[in-house]
Automatic annotation (TrEMBL):
Protein name, entry field: Triphosphate tunel metalloenzyme 3
Molecular functions (GO terms): pyrophosphatase activity
Pfam families tied to this protein: CYTH
Residues annotated as domain CYTH: 1-199
Organism: Hibiscus syriacus (Rose of Sharon)
Lineage: superkingdom: Eukaryota
Length: 202
């Protein structure tokens, strides 16, 4: 189970202010492309699951992941997540022809076949995707990510911090943001749900 604290940042100006304040703790920046898949009959989403292929720094790395049963309450997201490294060339081929997913050798796809009953005769479709830029900061013994997610309909800014103590991290981050006059709100939707809705949250 992955547990993350997620706060929404209001706009680009607030994002810029926060990354400037955190700049002494900056550890690096990751550019990521994300593509999502399901069967034509929504076999995965009907069981609150999501298959994703993500490319890091264009083709440098590729990761295939299965996320299941996400909850997002009061700025704390919990999700069952399974992931593995993937050959970027195969990943790109699956984006171009999603039917290939049913035939590839992967522990994730084996799990989908076994648990969801999706056999080789079932095709997959690409649901689309989006790009994001994650700036990592090592702050207070935490890995804090400040995200910039680009959709066709706008850009969404968010703070994420994975922790086994979400309540403690949540308070630490909130105190820091308030002390520095950074406006924020609890995230209420996952990035994929925002993508599906076709508009940024109000």
């Amino acid at each position: 189970m992955d547990v993350e604290v997620k706060f929404r940042l209001q706009d680009a100006a607030v994002h810029r202010r926060l990354t400037t304040i955190l700049s002494p703790f900056r550890a690096g920046t990751l550019h990521q492309q994300n593509f999502f898949f399901d069967t034509p009959t929504n076999t995965l989403s009907s069981r609150l699951s999501l298959l994703r292929i993500s490319f890091h720094e264009e083709e440098a790395r590729c990761i295939i992941s299965l996320k299941s049963k996400p909850t997002l309450v009061d700025g704390v997201c919990r999700v069952e997540k399974d992931k593995e490294e993937f050959d970027p060339c195969i990943g790109r081929a699956c984006v171009e022809d999603p039917a290939r997913l049913a035939r590839i050798e992967s522990s994730i796809m084996k799990r989908i076949r076994d648990e969801f009953g999706v056999g080789e005769g079932v095709s997959f479709v690409c649901l689309g995707g989006f790009e994001n830029k994650k700036t990592d900061f090592h702050w207070k013994n935490l890995r804090v990510e400040v995200d910039e997610t680009r959709y066709e309909f706008g850009t969404y800014y968010e703070i994420e911090c994975e922790s086994e103590d979400p309540d403690g991290v949540k308070k630490l981050l909130e105190d820091f943001l308030k002390e520095n006059g950074i406006p924020y709100s609890y995230s209420k939707m996952t990035k994929f749900d925002i993508y599906k809705s076709g508009e940024l949250p109000k």
